[in-house]
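Quick start: read one record
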Amino acid sequence: MDRIKEAADLIVDINKYRRQQIQDYQLIRSACTYFDRIKSEQITQADLRFLKYVSNIIGVPHFYDVLSKFGKELELEEHDLSTISSLISEATLHTSDSSKVHRYQKIILDLFQPSKLNRYFLSASTSFGKTHIVFEIIKKLAYKNVVLIFPTIALLSENLEKIIDDSNFEYFKNNYAIHTLSEVESFGESNLFIFTPERFLSFIDKNEHLIDFDFAFIDEVYKIDNDYLIDDELRENERDVAYRLAVFYTLKPSVNVLLAGPYIDFSDASEKNYNASFDNFLRDNNIELLDFNNYEIVNKSFTEIRGAKTAIADEELNFKFESGNKTDRLVDIVKAIKRIGENTIVYCSARSATESYAKTLIDSNIFYDHDYQSYNDFVTHIKKYFGDDWVVYRALLNGIGIHHGLVPKYIQKEIINLFNNDRLKVLISTTTITEGVNTSAKNLVVLHSKKGDKNLKKFDAKNIAGRAGRFLYHYNGRVLVLQNKFMDAINATPEAIKHKNYDFESPKDEIDIYYTNDTYLKPEHRATIASIAQRQIERAIPEEVFNMYKVISRSDKIAIYDRIAALNASQFLSIRMLIKKLNYEMDIDSDGFQVVIDVLFPVIKNQKLIFLIERKDKNNRYSILTHFVHFYLDGGFIGSMNFKLKTKGKTKDEAIKETAEFVYNTLKYQVVKYLGVFNIMYKLYQSKQQQVEMDQITGIDRLLTKLEYNALSENGRIASDYGVPSNVVEYYENLEQGSQIRASFDNYENSIFDKIEKIVKKDNR
């Protein structure tokens, strides 16, 4: 590093910024580069004063603090006027003795003022620190009832753990009753709800008129637009519908709102193909747009590695390749990153690719000397329950983490923790790294420019690249693109976000028309609403029943009600036997369950679920789904996995992936919502027949709770959300046998139990 030249270049950019020749976000990039290069150099007192000054100019004093992570002593022995000015400026960014924001976070924080309606839509880089602002806003305005909506249970539990365990969040633990379950037995004087969109809607079903929110935050709000969802599973699970409905129900007249997401692009009214729907959404709901997409608080450098035998990322990292083969080059890249003592994320387009490349790295013996003793209890636990032939186990022994949607959730969580704590050197992942996961890696190797067989869009590519480098850990993240067209996606024409409920021309399904202002409805939409209203009157279906399970259309609910009404006495007897068995054994009566899914079958849209119902067992009596649900209730994830191993002849990797696909996608999203609608329509029909209130009818509620949470007790559901082995959940489900269950814990289960006990006890203080 030529320190004089580097410092001179930075000073030139500072002067350009003062003369308004470059933007503040461009100066941040220059400062990131300078800090990244000097972090490994010997730093004098003069250097410290200059670095303090620079961090003040760019408004990110954290840059100076991060130097301590690289072994730098930061105490200033002397203070000149510039240093004193910097310290005064930094003091304005402190929100408490132990917490501060950067200048661009403070701009947003300052926008939120008492005695006004505060509504903002924020798009910013992945390194911006959006969630941190949210907690500062809540503290500043001391809201009474707050809901935070995150995309995944993993982020829900991460924020719960942060509030319970982190001393910086003591304010929230002391001033709010914390709720993460949709069933709330009692409210506190002030309440903080942490939900996913689906769980928020479930809460609204039960409590809409019991509590008024003062503030709502929705993360990754781009999911309101189906075109932004490249993941087929997200589409199949109607994440866009759930997100649009969650936004709708948070935008009550007096609620303050912050909607946020990374790298969202917006329509320009001057463009030929301008779509006004998103602007209509903002205007109609008094929401102000905040576009901070250019503010990369951690800089990104891109290196395309193609056919050349050498490549240089920067002064610290360069490559020499002996082969032109892509797989061989990946091995060489990982070796080079290992040599400089850093970790890396490897992005793959598909789950099968993550496992294939993991095997390649295992066979290369790069990490032959890896020491896994610090997490030996974890790998021993995996071997015990999943076997030593599972690729995830073998990868962990070699310091490699595999992360995709079909790895059991608590194992995913532990792998991320190990990677972030530098216990694992490589994390090989699909787009799950962009779905509610916080990682800490300076390097990102991109092997593909697709998600599955679909080309990445600009938004997806930027979101993936955003995983290189993390604020408060790095100044610069390296994106290493290995022989693919990823940069074409990065540089592609952006697709602006749209909101179909605010677009007259946009196709709308039946669910959407009920949440669309009349201005954006066509005559045929109004005719549909009138027709359904007439059918509702004819069947005397209360509005509150229609408002439950909002992601199922009213027409489908009516169809289910009619099919229930057409059942014969024998079929009703089978359903009662099902309910009885669920309540006494938490298992299904196969005849009764088959009646239920036969009632539901005509309205089911999901192809995987249709297949599981259509396909019958060898006696052609029960659907495969019936058997799958039985084995899941009987033995949980492990029981379902063993069923596939023993009766289906699957390999270990296949059995685990197929079980995870069923449990995490089909069961928890698809089966639960359809069974839920059956339950309310069955109880409605029976309440009319028996002339009693609906809540006096016993239904399949216990099954729904078990399938959604994998637990029935409140503490069991909290533990399940947090992500723990099944034995730990079982402890909370059967406290009368608690000592016996606890005695069976292995070392890893004991360590997890100690963590979750603190959360359960403090959460129920």
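The longest helix spans residues 652-690.
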